[in-house]
Amino acid sequence: MTDADPWKDLAPPSQSSSINARRVESSGPLAFYWAKGVDNHCLLVMRHSPVSSPKGRLPQMRGLEMTLSDDEDSGTRMLALRLLEAGQREIFHRLCLDLVSSAEKSKTEAEALTVALTRTWRWHHLLRGGGDGRLDPEAQKGLIGELIVFEHIILAALPAPAAVASWHGPLGAPKDFEVGRVCLEAKARRGAATPYVSISSEFQLDASGIDVLFLHVAELDQELVPSKEGFTLTEVAEQCRRAVGERDRGGLERFEELLEATGFRWEDDYGDSRWVAGHHRVFRVSEGFPAITTASCPTGVTNIRYSISLVECGPFRSSESEISAVLKGNHDAH
Fold it and tell me: pTM for the complete prediction?
């Protein structure tokens, strides 16, 4: 696994529909392969059972491509990470070693795949932009919005292990939180902005296949004048970490992994970026809610980004207490 260049002796296959691969020496439950495609690009392939396959959005990084495909001959699926820029071969090798090493500790194939994807999302944030490596204000705002929901609603309603397991947003899932057949999407917006929120896909507010879907909208503004109400992203993250640790120290490691997957790092200093919170609004997404879903999209149309008016969402107003009641009822039923 520590070969200086594991792709050096791999020749590209003769057919475009195949790859030339050799298995990575790994003691974990997930089958990893060093591979090359017909275009001579280097790959790391994760072969797995369809039942373990990821369901969320896959990370796409600068110079890299992640794809999911079926191997009809074996009945398995292949999650492949492909290097597109040959000049990044060394850092790609480091990324691959990190994924394999992280997944080795897992007990099941599904867990190993989740861990590998979590680490990939971490690398996605590290490689996507340069600068000082910190999350930009927009990303900070979005993460704070999710952490507010996590601490004040999810963690308050559920046992810590279930609360941490419900946080799917860092892994690119369509919904930020999933508890059985109850889902919650968290959004954050500037308080003084036009009353709209941005929706990043036709899946986010699609309630088909689930029992209940809530939309939580938090108002967050960057602090202009220092005040005791202001806070940083690090302070919010630390508050959540402390809350998880007080309830279940065993859940801290997974919470930290998810936090890392968002691009957050404890060593980054966010002291110059302070925030103040305003009103929170909650809506229950049901029939007639202003949303674009997979059912309403013409065939072949996908990856839709759009905005919805919070004024038009008025008839669907709900509350944090209703979310808590639904979550507790769902958890107790299972």
Answer: 0.78
E strand residue ranges, the chain: 20-23, 31-36, 42-48, 64-71, 76-83, 177-179, 182-189, 196-199, 212-222, 275-284, 306-309
3-state secondary structure of 307: strand
Beta-carbon contacts of 43 under 8 Å, excluding residues fewer than 6 positions away, are 19, 21, 33, 34, 35, 36, 37, 80, 81, 82, 83
DSSP code of residue 231: B
- How far, in Å, CA of 112 to CA of 31, rounded? 10
Beta-bridged to residue 126, according to DSSP, are none
Residue 104 sits at the vertex; the CA angle it makes with 103 and 108, to the nearest 5 degrees, is 75
SS3 143: helix
Question: 253-257 long-range CB contacts below 8 Å, 24 or more apart?
Answer: 254/164, 254/165, 255/164, 255/167, 257/115, 257/118
Q: What is the pLDDT of residues 59-112, one digit of tens each?
A: 878 788 999 999 888 889 999 999 998 888 898 999 999 999 989 988 899 989
Cα end-to-end distance, the chain, whole Å: 42
Q: Say how far apart CA 43 and CA 96 lie, in whole Å.
A: 9
Phi-psi region of 150 (alpha: psi -120 to 50; beta: other; left: phi over 0): alpha
Number of Cβ atoms within 10 Å of the Cβ of 125: 21
Q: Model confidence at 172, in pLDDT bands (50, 70, 90)?
A: confident
Residue 254 near residue 163, CB atoms below 8 Å? no
Q: What is the pLDDT, as a whole number, of residue 266?
A: 92
CA 70 to chain centre: 23
The confidence score (pLDDT) of residue 316 equals 98
